[in-house]
Specification:
Blueprint: E1 2-6, H1 10-19, E2 24-28, H2 32-39, H3 50-58, E3 62-65, E4 76-79, H4 94-106, E5 112-115, H5 123-135, E6 143-146, E7 165-169, H6 172-183, E8 189-191, H7 195-226, H8 230-237, H9 261-271, H10 277-299, E9 309-313, H11 328-338, E10 342-346, E11 352-353, E12 356-357, E13 366-369, H12 378-383, E14 387-390
Parallel strand pairs: 1-2, 1-4, 2-3, 4-5, 5-6, 7-8, 9-10, 9-13, 13-14
Antiparallel strand pairs: 6-7, 11-12
Helix pairs in contact: 4-5, 7-9, 7-10, 9-10, 10-11
The chain binds nicotinamide-adenine-dinucleotide.
Nicotinamide-adenine-dinucleotide is lined by residues 6-12, 28-31, 34, 80-83, 95, 98-99, 102, 116-118, 149, 151, 153, 256-257.
């Protein structure tokens, strides 16, 4: 069986690395640099080892390509392309549309198309299927399914094998084929009654996180105003063995999922006349956290940090990954620069970002820790500036918390 995976990023390459142990896999990506790197056996994704890619290539189980004709005789097609927000923070299906065009124009036989990209309910039925059909010269009826991806980059305890996977096809045949495909490398497959339920479940999972993160971020502000420790209060609440789940405060939410997916849910809700109040407010609270942190830093310096050198420590959106998409560090840096401070950043996992290079972890007037990678010593962070504001709760001894 030949499986083609459209998009060789975090999701697509991860799936490719598991699927290629059982199927012949083509990794299609429109970025030729990524394709040539992969074909040289170099992985650009944490969690997928270069040695594994190299072995799969040597065993003729995997090959990357940017040529549409290479996917022509596939049996299964998995779509794993970005689903970001537009500049107006609305769902942006441009990449899915382009992937559908590639599929429609190149596929010659009947295939199963599985979407793993996160999008709103109805995407497979009302967007992917008609778009592929629009670009197909033939009238072959393909099968369509969704199996939303739950991969958590950098995580080692849960992976493709042991994370339960939701799926649903537009037809019974599509559901069965989807189950067969994933059952080779996933232990727990959960069929739901329609693609819309699977699509909505994925969005709701991340909305649940976004709303709870916003709640704890708001509570951090309340705790500070009341003069009590937010962390001690959360630990105290967490002694309750049921009905409570601990989330911790942060400078905001980042990455491809939490700041983005809830907006997909809000957009489709509002299109159908349903409220999305919580989702919209949670988004605002999380986005405003960066401004709150900068206000606290300024207040601790008598109302001005103009001209001070400020080092933002950790700009990846979460520990131990190099991913800076939607990172809260971006707004923290912007608000710090608005105060007239001279801002640089340190992150030896990211190294280079937005045309700037990581600065040494030393010699600043003020440090603001946004993300703490596990290989960075707290003591070194405390030593890099006389005043350190810690947004992570992982730098004991920081003056600002
Ligand atoms: N990263 C995660 O943790 C995660 C987790 C669950 C779900 N998702 C979802 O999975 C989807 C993919 O996310 P990702 O993190 O893998 O993105 P990514 O940016 O890491 O990778 C996407 C890849 O697709 C390629 N691409 C873009 N348009 C293309 C096209 N038309 N044809 C072929 N290749 C194309 C890009 O070059 C890139 O290599 C998104 O919908 C995302 O929301 C991501």
């Amino acid at each position: 069986m030949k499986v083609s995976i459209i998009g060789q990023g975090y999701v697509g390459l991860t799936i490719a690395s598991f699927a290629a142990e059982f199927y012949s896999v083509i990794g299609f990506d429109s970025n030729e640099d990524i394709v040539s790197q992969l074909n040289r056996g170099i992985s650009h994704i944490e969690g997928v080892k270069s040695s594994q890619i190299k072995r799969l290539i040597d065993q003729n189980r995997y090959r990357a390509t940017s040529k549409g004709s290479d996917i022509a005789d596939s049996d299964i097609l998995v779509i794993a392309v970005p689903t970001p927000l537009t500049e107006n923070r609305e769902p942006d299906l441009r990449f899915i549309e382009a992937a559908c065009k590639t599929v429609g124009e190149n596929i010659k036989n009947k295939v199963l198309v599985i979407n793993e990209s996160t999008s709103f309910p109805g995407t497979v039925r009302n967007f992917i299927k008609p778009t592929i059909e629009k670009f197909s010269a033939s009238v072959i009826k393909h099968e369509y399914a969704i199996s939303p991806e739950r991969v958590d980059p950098g995580r080692t305890d849960f992976n493709q094998k042991n994370t339960p996977r939701l799926y649903a096809g537009l037809t019974k045949e599509a559901s069965e084929l989807t189950r067969d495909f994933y059952s080779k490398f996933c232990d727990n497959l959960v069929e739901v009654s329609s693609p819309e339920v699977a699509e909505a479940a994925k969005l709701f999972e991340n909305t649940f996180r976004q709303v709870n993160i916003a709640l704890v971020n708001e509570f951090a502000q309340i705790a500070h105003a009341l003069g009590i420790s937010v962390y001690e209060t959360l630990d105290a609440a967490n002694t309750k063995p049921y009905g409570f789940m601990k989330f911790t405060p942060s400078a905001g939410v980042g990455g491809h999922c939490i700041p983005v997916d809830p907006t997909y849910l809000a957009a489709i809700a509002e299109e159908h006349g349903a409220p999305a109040t919580f989702i919209r407010i949670a988004n605002e609270v999380n986005l405003e956290m960066s401004r709150y942190i900068v206000k606290r830093v300024v207040a601790d310096h008598g109302g001005s940090i103009k001209g001070k050198s400020v080092l933002v420590v950790g700009v990846a959106y979460k520990p131990d990954v190099a991913d800076v998409r939607e990172t809260a560090a971006e707004l923290v840096i912007k608000h710090l620069r608005d105060t007239g401070a001279v801002v640089s950043w340190h992150d030896d996992v990211v190294q280079e970002w937005g045309g700037e290079k990581s600065s040494p972890l030393q010699g600043a007037d003020i440090a603001v820790v946004v993300t703490k990678h596990s290989n960075v010593d707290s003591k070194k962070m405390l030593a890099c500036a006389p005043y350190v504001f810690d947004t992570t709760g992982k730098v004991p001894g920081a003056k600002g918390l």
